[in-house]
Amino acid sequence: MLEAPRKGSLTPMTRPGTPIEHWKEVVNDMMKAYKHEMESEAHRIFREAAGHKPKAVLPQTVNPDEETVPGIEHPGSTGVIYCSDRAIANGFSYASAHDWANMGQGAPEVGPIPDALPRPQSIPVPEDSLEYAPTTGVKALREAVANLYNVQYRKGKESKYTYENVCIVPGGRAGLSRVAAVISNVYCAYQIPDYTAYDQVLGAFKRLVPIPTVLDQENHYKMDIKQTKKDIRTQGLSVILASNPRNPTGQVIKGQELDELVALSRESTTLILDEFYSWYIYPEEGEEYGQSISSAEYIKDVNEDSVIIINGLTKNWRLPGWRICWVLGPKNLITALSQSGSFLDGGANHPLQLAAIPMLDPERVQIDKIALQKHFKRKRDHVLKRLYKMGLKVAHPPNSTFYIWLNLESLPAPLNNGLTFFEELLKEKTIVIPGIFFDINPAHRRNLVDSPCHHFVRLSFGPPMKDLDMGLDAIHRVLKKARTHGMKPFGHSYKTSLDGEITEEDHDGING
């Protein structure tokens, strides 16, 4: 059974006056934890992947997979590559994806849903669009984004967005990278758990010194604004990075709490808010469909409040393959992002930017938003109901996003940790995401069994209902096997070699 080392117990070695013995006890506890990690086959496979070796725990040997090119350092994967590699080792391929339930995918279903307007099946390609687009994006699309935010969130406010407040980028990660590239040496606060790519962004852009805060399940994973204000004063925090609505917990900061968070931008602090799930808001009884969330509603002056919003067509419009996204913020930020984009990514796809313009019409957006919320709320309720019948109660059901943050601690070992649960479901042709990928830990110094995300997996209800039922059936089979045969069948016999070369197309079959 995997257990974290026992902490806080008073023994003769920890009494005051015996510092040497005390530190021996501390080192012994660390060694015990390390042994526990290495005794798990799922954890060993994870550690053997490039970029995942622990640092500053024990002396490391050279990993030839990471040292083949002098000066190259593996940043570790965001979960997409690792989980796809493991799925491919178990028989997954892009061609046979229909035989698998991908409850790990970080993308919504892209096909038709009830009452939603049809999306383009083909797009025109004017001759001018064969040229490079500006690194800030096509002006007409920037105007459409600004107008949409003004209509949805800036009614009655004197300060309005214009195209000069918008930068079009080729995907959310590109937007994050552009922003990170123009930030100077600062302390950057972030929360655990949160979106997996923040780990690599904070690790790659060394001028952002990461300052973590672990959010408590008991407190509904809420951000402590009062404590954050104190940290700004005492630690000199200059940047706060967060997703809202929150990936992977499915919670959302709104109303007065969001207003207070935005107000921090007036205390010499920049807020970077990832708002990709802003439409995935599920109304409670008596509330209306069609509401959405954005910090733009609480900004006083769009050019003075240092709030950076990242969003795009990927989630809300259900068009992840288009890679058309935007960064919204003060004018002087957009100028800087144009410069960083010129050497980072070169800009977004020109014809698709033109095709996206009519899709940002506010009346069209409202129709699609209501259809999306009704459809995904049905899927959420269906998944939660089936999990509950299996004895897997979700402590805090998602009120936003399309993710369920599932705590496995009630299950017997070794199924009670995310990595082993993930490996067992791969045997059943089902993909989930182990919780440790949402433990934003750029230095990789934390032992896996000590991670606050160790006992969790993220389940996505983004895919179509039939795929969700395939995955839920697989979870049911694993739990039934545990009840019938005990725990001996679990925790071992995982495939580690791949039959054939992994292609880029295979990786694209699993979206993180």
UniProtKB/TrEMBL annotation:
One of its GO terms (molecular function) is pyridoxal phosphate binding. The keyword Transferase applies. One of its GO terms (biological process) is amino acid metabolic process. Its cofactor is pyridoxal 5'-phosphate. Residues 99-475 form the Aminotransferase class I/classII large domain. Keywords: Aminotransferase, Pyridoxal phosphate, Transferase. It comes from the Eukaryota. Coiled coil: none annotated. InterPro entries: Aminotransferase_I/II_large, AspAT/PAT-like, PyrdxlP-dep_Trfase, PyrdxlP-dep_Trfase_major. Belongs to the class-I pyridoxal-phosphate-dependent aminotransferase family. This is Aminotransferase.
